[in-house]
Amino acid sequence: MRVHGGQLSQNLGHAAELIAEAAGRGADLALLPEALDLGWTHPDARNHATTIPDGEACAALARAARQHRIFVCAGMTEKDGDRTYNAAVIIDRDGEVILRYRKLNELEIGHASYDQGDRLGVCHTELGTLGLMICADGFASGLVLGRTLGHMGADIILSPSAWAVPPGHDQVREPYGRIWRDSYIPVCREFSLWIAAVSNVGPIVAGPWEGRDCIGCSLVIDPQGEEILRGPYGADAETILYTEVQPLERPARGCGWQEMDFKREVPRR
Question: How many domains, the chain?
Answer without folding.
Answer: 1
